[in-house]
Design goal:
6 strands; six-stranded antiparallel sheet; 20% helix; 198 residues; disordered N terminus; alpha+beta
């Protein structure tokens, strides 16, 4: 099977990982290198992210980069990005029947806005609510949304991993209720007591 264009021949996996490590994340996003899965692909790297505003965590996620130089039929390519994004949301949101479509739309829109070309995208959007009982009955009700997705990046027409990292960062921030920002633009922190918009 012939796969879509991946990276130019002079690139190797170490170069892609170097780009991952050198990416400049917005100030609300803290990145940590984590162990990557070893059995899915010959080469892999992984990071975790925490999205915080004024010291309070508002979202989190993980991103795994997989590479099989011989290609993978299920991926339709030689590289694969596997993403997880999670955030607490308003209780009313989890009852919205359109939340799943909206959540998936965040990913698609983020990739398109960053001109991050891709194929074979797949994933799930899960919304859950929790109510505490017994000794925990004093704890507030909670609701959260999780977006799990994977896609095969196409590195053509000058597109690099950075476009896909930017899209993933936008997905994390949208899930956490923060607007995506153009590079070099800083988000103004809302005044204490103001409601976080979605």
């Amino acid at each position: 099977m012939t796969f879509p264009p991946a990276l130019p021949q002079d690139h190797v996996f170490d170069d892609v990982v170097a780009e991952l490590k050198a990416y400049r994340w917005r100030r609300e996003v803290t990145i940590t290198e984590i162990p990557s899965p070893q059995r899915i692909a010959p080469h892999s790297a992984a990071i975790s992210a925490e999205v915080a505003v004024d010291g309070d965590e508002v979202g989190s996620g993980r991103l795994v980069l997989l590479h099989d130089p011989h290609g993978n039929d299920a991926w339709a390519g030689t590289y694969r990005l596997v993403s997880y994004a999670r955030a607490d949301v308003d209780l009313e949101m989890v009852t919205d029947p359109l939340l799943a479509e909206v959540g998936w739309g965040w990913l698609v829109e983020a990739l398109e806005q960053r001109h991050a070309t891709y194929v074979a995208a797949s994933g799930t959007v899960t919304a859950v609510s929790s109510r505490c009982f017994g000794e925990m009955s004093g704890d507030p009700d909670r609701a959260e949304v999780e977006i799990r997705a994977s896609w095969t990046p196409l590195f053509e027409d000058g597109v690099t991993l950075g476009a896909h990292l930017g899209a993933w960062q936008d997905l994390l921030c949208l899930t956490a209720g923060l607007p995506p920002l153009p590079e070099g633009v800083v988000l103004l922190t809302p005044r204490p007591g103001s409601n976080r918009g979605r």
